[in-house]
Specification:
This protein has seven helices and three strands. With 189 residues, it is an alpha+beta fold. The longest helix has 25 residues. It is elongated. It comes from Candidula unifasciata.
Length: 189
């Protein structure tokens, strides 16, 4: 991060009292962990709207650096430049309180191929009826019902009917995805 950027942020951050900055740090961390939007009302008594967005951006970036890159207290103090040392410590201490939740959230975001998540599934083994055209195949079919939760919280149902070769391909693909996610989470920690 550029030092000029931190210096510009330091003047904005220094407008807040220690108590206000600590409260805002915890609010930003909570909103990151919960994937929620933080209302600007929380900071408008201290900062202008533009300054509020700067504060949110800077605090989010500091949290990502402390948690993601393992910044020490000394590194945070050095990087935040001319900001009062007590305010730097408040920022760092606030991040430490939420460190595990932030780490989990950042890993989850980094490893998500998409933000849709499998919430539940059900399966049934079906045999084709004698009158059905598929009966001539003499092959059982697997019916899989997937309940997928979108990032918006909406649930979507996906229904699949697979023969043995398609099921094998699906299992192979899922195993490869699982290995990739495990490698990403191992590398991220």
């Amino acid at each position: 991060m550029a030092t000029d950027k931190w210096e510009a942020a330091a003047t904005v951050l220094s407008k807040a009292s220690a108590t206000d900055l600590e409260t805002v740090c915890h609010l930003v961390a909570d909103s990151l962990c919960a994937d929620s939007v933080l209302s600007p009302d929380k900071g408008l008594s201290i900062w202008s709207l533009e300054d509020w967005w700067t504060v949110r951006t800077v605090l989010t970036e500091v949290m990502r650096m402390v948690v993601g890159r393992g910044w020490s207290k000394e590194k945070v103090i050095k990087e935040l430049g001319s900001l009062n040392d007590s305010l730097k410590e408040i920022i760092y201490d606030s991040v430490l309180v939420h460190q595990q939740l932030l780490r989990h959230k950042f890993i989850e975001d980094a490893t998500a191929v998409s933000h849709a998540v499998l919430a539940d599934f059900d399966w049934k083994l079906k045999l084709a009826m004698a009158s059905d055209k598929l009966a001539s195949l003499q092959e059982p079919l697997l019916q899989v019902d997937l309940d997928v939760r979108e990032v918006s919280g909406e649930h979507k149902s996906v229904f699949l009917e697979l023969d043995q070769s398609e099921l094998t391909k699906l299992i192979t693909s899922l195993e490869m995805c699982s290995k990739s996610v495990q490698q990403l989470t191992t590398n991220a920690t």
